[in-house]
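Run N-acetylated-alpha-linked acidic dipeptidase through structure prediction, thanks.
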Amino acid sequence: MRKYDILKNLLLLVLLLISGTKHAVHAQNYRGYSQESTENQKAVETAFLEAVDFSIFREHLKQLTLQPHVAGTPANDEVANYIAQVMEMAGMRVERYPYDIYMSTDGGNSAVELVQPLRLPLNQQEYILEEDSFSADPNLKKGWNAYSGSGDVTAQVVYANYGTKEDFEKLVAMGVDIAGKIVIARYGGNFRGYKARFAEQYGAAGLIIYTDPADSGFTRGLVYPEGVYYNESAIQRGSILTGDFTGDPLTPFEPALPLDGKKKINRMDPAEASLPRIPVLPLPYGSAKEILGRMSGQVVPSGWQGGLPFTYRLEGGDELLVRIAVDQKRDFVRVNNIIGTFRGTTHPDEWIILGCHYDAWAFGATDPNSGTAMLISLSETLGKLAKQGMAPKRSILIAHWDGEEHGVLGSSEWVEQLKEELGAKAVAYMNFDGGVSGRNVGGASSPTLKQLMTDAAKEVAYPYSEESLYDHWRGDREEPAIGNLGGGSDHIGFYMHVGVPSMSGGAGGPTLYHTNYDSFDFYKNYVDPEFQMGGTVQQWAGLMALRLANAEVIPYDVNRYASDLKGHFENAVKKVKELQPDFVEFDQVNAALIELEKNSQIFNDALTVALGSGELSGKEIRSINEQLLALEKSFIDNKGMYYGSWYRSLYASTDPFSGYASWILPGIEYELSLKSTERLEEWDQRYAAAIESLTTKVMALTDSLGE
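Sure, done. The structure for N-acetylated-alpha-linked acidic dipeptidase is below.
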């Protein structure tokens, strides 16, 4: 299309917008679609929404949560087989991707007890409840932390609040001796693995982690089974694996392919791996109170008092001795990702990937298998459409990851195995870990997918009101709040290692997170008794997937890069000024952002006109889409972060001190966390180079529309 044709069509578009015609509405609401394809897509979406069977979610969730299914156990293999069977019957091509991971499948032998002033073994498992038939399952285990070190220690006790970096620094500043002691810290504030890392770093001999009633317990409301909060026996299990990369601890940057496979992978010696060495165990607050209530040292500082009915103290003193013993074996364990594919009819080598892990600490009704049940239900609905002649134009992959609970293992290994293909083919990764855990809608996303999330939400009815999902989500705000992706789930490898635009969404609510009580009984009584949210989230996820799959041009919101980055750098400048008051701005970044904003708008306008004209050829569309897939890669820097080169995205990373929080502009955030400004000039250059690379790609896209 010639340059003057673009200008002529742009003028026509402006007139259409002024007149408020139907075409203008379509152009706004269906990014990446021509008028003709918009009408076709509307028909597909109507058929999809009508095809969703709301009742099937309940049946799938019930089957998935019949028994505890920790990664690497036969019970988890049964769950994998069920998932594969459902997807195959839906018409998907199903593949298994096996890996041999260095890990544990159970907590082994463990004990926690008071030794002095009296001998008192402490409870390590949830009570059997008459109201919850699942709580009596003989396969349920004690509380445990995967990757705990083994050891048997008897020592004095130190209370470390949430066990954050700042909490340990404060203990040292207050003169508390941690070396050789057993630290007791409450859950919250950071990833449990960092509690263990900091405890070990400061010389602790062992670590006990418990859930305080101030965070989930009787001080918050009624406890289970009368309510949704932790009772005195409820225990949060979880991995404590940390490192400067995500995935199998022995194979950084390489997939942990089967030991008996044809391709051999060099594995680190376990003795050289960065694995926890001190014994670590989780306890319920009913057991923790027996320790905390006997402590006699100085009173805790402001903000450290928990919800148990006594004054918290920093040290236990000479008269209080506690024993912690763990014998947890590690070995190579087979895990399996289950990947189903609906092959695209037009662009089979462009992939939309939806995922959720399926391994759980026990039954996993909310976390993760509400998301699993939703996705296998979605596979059935998409299968119905395919049989009606409405198969997706791009390939839709539905991935069920294994080993997530031990440290986001299965998905990370798959990303490492397929990183070249993902870099060339992956349009988006959409994560639904625990995606139907309540009725409160929410999401987090990379910039280019945010508009897709809100647009699709407008087309879905919220079941417990007369509102749309979008209106319920936004509440009193002008727009819904969309968060930034942090750590803790399967989007990490896609977004932070390879540079695939990613999002995480769903509905949240009450959860007995990682306890033996996260069962089908809990779900049906407290999470969503009417079982309406499974179908609702499926409709939302399906619409997003179908809009990505069927658009002629991949419907990224390219303009969002500049607007989001502008806000992020404004926040970064404020933080820098707290350390260096005379700091003005990131000069090179600011100049680069001006160009990005200008050229993104030019491209957006040109694309709208080109789609409206209907003159883009198939060859041109393929070229445009190839270029769009490269945009996010502008932020992938092979040098990576100073805290770990595996984290290669300059845009976003998991916080290396908390493990859960999102770090936007992580290079700058890390520098500030060190209370340093020495490398700010370097980061100004590196970020400006990334933005300039993105701008160059956007300009090339605009030029290709004018050819």
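The first helix runs from residue 3 to 19.
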